[in-house]
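Supplementary Data S3. Sequence and structure tokens for construct A.
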Amino acid sequence: MTLKQLCFYKIKKNIILLIQITKNFFLYKNWFYLDPIYLLDQIKIVGPDSIPVVLITAFFVGMVFSLQIIKEFLYLNAVNLVGTILSIAFIRELSPVLTSVIVIGRIASSFAAELGAMKVTEQIDALYLLEANPFTYLVMPRIIACIIILPLLNLLSFSTSLFSSSFICFAIYSVNPVLFFMTALSSLSFADIRNSCLKSIIFAFIISSLSCLYGLSASGGARGVGNAVTSSVVSALLSVFILDFILSYFMFSDVNSVFYSI
């Protein structure tokens, strides 16, 4: 088998597995066999254990982004627009993508490594022998946990970034925090928050599905598990960045300028 044929075979195999994961997820009968204890365990891994990383990252990203923005608006004498620009940038783009990248680095790699280790040690085959569905028992709780938690982490990241931005604007450039939050909150709309959460839900499904997909298709011992983890992280990152552009184009292309509300 040539390299080209091998690549085509792997791509075809992964697409088929991804379609099967999507199909099984929306198959209502699988929900009746869901283990609630295992689901709560996965929610804890994805959610509370990720909060410190999200808070620290969002805090410093908000401050760095503010440092670059505030100087230009002070030069233009448009301080009242700082809160508007930052809140829109955070809620529409930075927070969903930033949170997804953190989850990819921390959770997707963990999912792929854990399922890959189970695959190469034939634990997945043992589940089939016990007439247990590996998708219902192993994959579905991980997907649901990501779908539940990622939008919440997104909103937490947005709030943290906004507060750190207001702190920098006040501490270094003496921008009134009241003015900052008035313009920031007045420019936000329900559609922005809804679309931001919808982005996070789609990202969560893609991230968890790809990581589980590569984990279940791992082979070749420890080296195969390592390759599966690397492939899952790279594929999830590329998918998030590509999907972010597509979703942003369709979600925000017909949205009026936020300056109309000021």
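Construct B, processed identically:
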Amino acid sequence: MIDEATAIGVARRIALQQGWAFVEPVQARLRKPWFFSKQSARWEIESNAVAFGARARFVIDAEDGTVLEKGYVPR
């Protein structure tokens, strides 16, 4: 399982590869699956968490670090 710092690092790297701004502060939440669910835990990461615009959002598998979802709001 990857930790919060690793998940943020993955998100930052992907954002820079895409040419997206990755602005502080960054908010990371670990979402754990419900009982008996076949899904794994995932990290939900948002940059520029307290303001509008220049926001990158990622969902990362907490088991292996795979990016499941990504998106960017420039303004």
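The chain has one domain: 4-73. The chain has a mean pLDDT of 93.
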